[in-house]
Write a structure and sequence with these properties.
With 377 residues, the protein is of the alpha/beta class. The chain is 41% helix and 19% strand. The strands form three sheets. It has a ten-stranded mixed sheet, with helices on both faces. A two-stranded antiparallel sheet has the order 6-7. A two-stranded parallel sheet has the order 13-14. The chain binds nicotinamide-adenine-dinucleotide. Nicotinamide-adenine-dinucleotide is lined by residues 13, 17, 73-76, 89, 92, 271-272, 288, 291-297, 303-304, 307, 345.
Length: 377
Amino acid sequence: MVKQIAVIKGDGIGPEIIAEAIKVLEAVADKFGHSFEYNYVLLGGTAIDQEGTPLPAETIKACKRADAVLLGAVGGPKWDFGPGHMRPEAGLLGIRKELGLFANIRPVKLFNALKDACPLKDPGEIDLVIVRELIGGAYYGERKTYIDEKTAVRTAYDTMAYSDFEIQRVARVAFDLAKKRAAAVGAAESGRPLGVTSVDKANVLDSSRLWREIVAKVRMEDYPNVALSDMLVDNAAMQLIRYPSQFDVIVTENLFGDILSDEASMLTGSLGMLPSASLNESGVGLYEPCHGSAPDIAGRDIANPLAAILSVAMLLEISFNMSREARAVENAVNAVLEQGYRTVDIVFKSEADSNSCEVVKCSEMGDLVAKVIAGNS
Ligand code: NAD
């Protein structure tokens, strides 16, 4: 099968991790007889440097034409002091809006081999998914910074607004995902909690009260067999640490989702382990690791490429409908971790003390995963 992928390497460690993701895509193409064509385009800091804008028109066109978009990460201190519209983040928010990517799916899975990497004493099985609304709420609402001429007091505000249709469509993604996960788990593991937890701040915010009402309505009308519970965001932040295996699918608005998913990422040991997919109504997706451009380690070939590689697995599964290929990537990541290979961010004291792991570079980790897929390991 021939597929076109728009590739945005981005800034900082972006080019390093994307090189490994492409290596893995090529291993999949060879193994399963596909052909992936890559169209490299600019976004963020490198786009500002080369094109004078964080979101060039050509990038928008190429992403809209592609079957899927693969992104490294954007941003860095070099571009931190420009005006809002000339910062790398403006490119990221802009491409999400241009492609209508309203649902961000972030699986949080603790690999068995990384149990020691989890900061919890007894983590149990952690296998949850956060569905974050991505193009509404405070990040896109009306905002202003102004000064009162009389008092010289400076004030800034951002508005968190949600309309019913925005809540409905992301709630559907969460309920569909919960149904799919329940079907995959089957009766054998029926002890596992299944269903959707909708997270809001309905005791304080109007937008959250509408959120809660609409999510319940969607469930009642179209997903009566999927369990639904509501949780306040402050409680959810606690529960993720106290007892993460109680969660299956969490659905929440943009700002809460941003914070909760970074918190949840720590349960897997490192931000470097967390993939994500952002989807629009027609299923076109942008796939990227959850972490940023990590300027503190850029250019040293020590970044963990597994979040980018696991994002490739999501791309294969969701946008290309290639479940076998997606499983091959996930299984290869698992195998490499089970064999004791670690990038520096996932080496933990007990393993280091007992010499039971081997520290590898970013590029070596990509080679190892690709080799397992090719069947040479
Ligand atoms: P970050 O995610 O880049 O880094 C946080 C910490 O995690 C750093 O210590 C970093 O070294 C480490 N880390 C991140 N990814 C890693 C990986 N793959 N392997 C090993 N260690 C890794 O967050 P930050 O430092 O707050 O932000 C840096 C820049 O990235 C900022 O400009 C920010 O705006 C941007 N950012 C971009 C995105 C995106 O492109 N989607 C997301 C978040 C932050």
